[in-house]
Amino acid sequence: MVNLIIDNKEVQVPKGTTIIEAAKKIHIKIPSLCHHPDQTVKGNCRICLVENDWGGLVAACSTKVSEGMKIKTNTKFVRDTQKGVLELILANHNQDCLKCDRNGNCELQDLCERFNISNNSLDENIVEAHEIDDFNCSIVRDYSKCIKCGRCADVCRDVQNVDVLAATNRGAEYEFIPRFDRKLHETECVFCGQCIKVCPVGAIYEKSSIDKVLTAIDDEQLHVIVQIAPAVRVSVGELFNLEPGSITEGQIVSSLKRIGFEKVFDTNFTADLTIIEEGYELIDRITNGGKLPMITSCSPGWINYIEGHGEDLLEHLSTCKSPQQMFGAISKTYYAEKLGIHPSKIFTVSIMPCTAKKFEANREEMNSYGFPDVDAVLTTRELGRLIKSQGIDFANVEEEEFDAPFGIASGAGAIFGASGGVMEAALRSVYEILTKEELEKLEFEEVRGMHGIKEAAVNINGNEIKIAVVHGLGNAKKVMEEIRAGKSDYTFVEIMGCTGGCIGGGGQPIEKTRETKQKRMDALYTIDSDKEHRSSHKNPTIIKLYEEFLGEPNGHKAHVLLHTTYKGRKL
Amino acid sequence: MNRTQKVITENFNTYKVEQIDKYIENGGFQGLKNALEKGKDFIIDELNISGLRGRGGAAYPTGKKWNGGRQTHADVKYVLCNADEGEPATFKDRELLVKDPYKVLEGLAISGYTFGAKEGFIYIREEYEFLHDKIRKAIKLAEENGYLGKNILGTGFDFSIKVFSGAGAYVCGEGSALIESMEGKAGRPRMKPPRIGVAGYMGKPTQSNNVETLAIVATVLKMGAVNYAKYGTEKSIGTKMISLCGNVKKPGTYEIPFGMSLREIIYDIGGGIVGDKDIKFLQLGGVSGPLMPKKYIDTKYTYEDLEAEGFGIGSGAILVADETKSVIKFLESVSYFFFHESCGKCTPCREGKRQMKKLLDKMSKGTATTKDLKNIEKISRIMTDASFCGLGQTAATAMLTAIKYFSPELCSSIDEIKAL
């Protein structure tokens, strides 16, 4: 342990602690911007400078404590320097805060409030920046708001291993842009949106479809329906000051009804459908010598990644469309037939915790008989904004239930939103289908939690099936390399592009604490354990769907509508 | 009275790079022989007696640095000669490399021996491209003659040297940025600690020295520290290479003993001011150095005398500006240089330069206000106190000293003050 004094108060912390962390321990908040608790220390922004024993300044984020150190965080010298740095940032920062995506949830705004920046002498607000990149359907990069902290590039490189962003140019032209001055869509960006989640300001955000959705709702010719992904219901409440992990299914349904959606359905239903298709596909591969390990295909960020970085491994992917797309396909076919509405008059919206889902919905192969499966995708954050824009008191609105028939879902569908959920849901069904026995315990604890690569083995009819659950693309790369090297003995692998799975998706509310993801995850398991049906193959609507419409699982019609193809997107 | 010396520069104009034998005839490699024969303690003692301080600008005692470096343990260690001489107005390292390359290589070999490195690098700025092949040739000839390579002089010491070319970035003179650049990355400084002496090139301990420092090491170990220490003053021991430029009649590189006055340097060595004009100011130590008004012209050129007045030796550059020169124009050129060379990584340097450029522009056009002058001072202080590396920390030095000594001139462009 190391003893030091911060602002005249003694504090004892383990060796290797940084000043900023030590100060936190005695409730002193040193301002920071480039610092992010999940990332490497960068020391770029220089706003965390504090005074050391000799009256010089040191960066609190990068300086480790030493025995007997005396730190002052509250001298005039420190305050003037910190405020001066802040003013320099603002002098080249687009200050259209009122119409900024991050208005009210911006680290730079918080600092301006802290430093009472109203009298910024440098405030010219003539911003010199690279042109805005909104040339793709998922992510917008507004360089006029970038403060060059490097957090986006850090997560892209170190966590996701996508590594399309780099510090480019020097001097005043220094910026983080895709290499070779490309636009995002010209790179191997997977549109996972993790850069959005770590950006301290509004320099990166999702490309919004709210206007498109509202226009559709106002169009009387259109039958506008909406599906909600599993992970949305345990996180959107955060945008209305509810605790992370608050389960708000009822509030979401009620709010969407008020906004004017004709039907509010549950993606968990098609998560169940995915399990059936994927489960039978796995059984087929095991019994008929297909390509193993089979890898799940629900996460579009992951699909973009393997198409960009593992063209040689595409055969390992399950050919199943994701639950979002399966829902879209069913909505434009089975549902359209049932209601007697022409598919062109059905407008299918999905609410997803994910920015890459926008990209997925835009893929040309994602259509059913020529009609796009999904017409518009909103992120969890956009859902929050949409509800706010309608003046709905979300936290207090009376709860309503999902519409039939696609509101009935099993608990297995719900846990899709957490890393390990797809695997657990699949095992519940695959085990029971193959052994024709009921599982005694439905929970597969080994595949739950935040560990990056989780492994387990299941005995089915005397055969040991090895499985792995992976989240975060950096971890995915490790598993891909094992498979490539022939060192992998897994039968089935679940891969999710984002850390924690969809609960940590790039479309989710910006996490305020490190525990947020865990709370969201716990809530999904609560939803599961409270459900009447907990295995996908026992969902009565799913059984009926196959009887009335699809026929055999993994059969011809299912393949036409519910399966897809992949191609390399290496540039 | 011209008191230039020929100690470090003893071999200038005596041989061409092809003529290694002439270098040897001049007593070349004697320093290396003495070093290998008498051992590391001897080397450190000699460096301490010589009072040698690093000649790159930071002026850290070399004996202390090398002794510390010896204690670092690692399987592989490297030494480095920093020939990224990028400080505008500074060109004395180029002279050493052109006129006595073997001495620099000899110093680097001694550094490798002391530090425990088998491999050394000489990182030469891109603008000195004409030198790269010449140095490679010198390395090859030194190897062929047994002064580099395997089993040097039969002592069992192996040491090889490679030439690295910079890519034209001033910030790469900073040790860690230089190493980033050697590793093929963009030249931006690394977080410290660890310092490069602990984790440098390829993560291995790397000891870096300036060209002149290494040449002096070779000289001192050849002639003996006691003899070298006869030059200079009590605290600033020895001789110093200076780059004299600007409005002097005889600009160039000179070797002088510490303790001459600036007046002697400018008038006796430099021949006075072109057109016999008066001096307005000097800039010492290169573009990152302070502006010194004429009234300090009789200050002695030593570490202690200059520091006492708030100036420094820095890289050894002495730039002279005559009475006709505009301080604002001069600051604009300084500012433009740093605006171009800032790596952009940290806020104070990147954004400070951006705003300073705007404000200087207003000063130059005569549209600046007193508020602008206050702001420029504020920005300069933040850059100095808060920047990530030495580039940003010194980029505003000229500005701050201009405000200190020449504010009437800076203010003369400000309408509000003119009206008073």
UniProtKB/TrEMBL annotation, chain A:
Residues 1-77 form the 2Fe-2S ferredoxin-type domain. The keyword Metal-binding applies. Keywords: 4Fe-4S, Iron, Iron-sulfur, Metal-binding. It comes from the Bacteria. Residues 77-116 form the 4Fe-4S His(Cys)3-ligated-type domain. Residues 137-167, 180-209 form the 4Fe-4S ferredoxin-type domain. This is 4Fe-4S dicluster domain-containing protein.
UniProtKB/TrEMBL annotation, chain B:
It holds the Pfam family Complex1_51K. Keywords: 4Fe-4S, Iron, Iron-sulfur, Metal-binding. The keyword Methyltransferase does not apply. It comes from the Bacteria. Residues 328-373 form the NADH-ubiquinone oxidoreductase 51kDa subunit iron-sulphur binding domain. InterPro entries: NADH-UbQ_OxRdtase_51kDa_CS, Nuo51_FMN-bd, Nuo51_FMN-bd_sf, Nuop51_4Fe4S-bd, Nuop51_4Fe4S-bd_sf, Soluble_ligand-bd. Belongs to the complex I 51 kDa subunit family. This is NADH-quinone oxidoreductase subunit F. It comes from Psychrilyobacter piezotolerans.
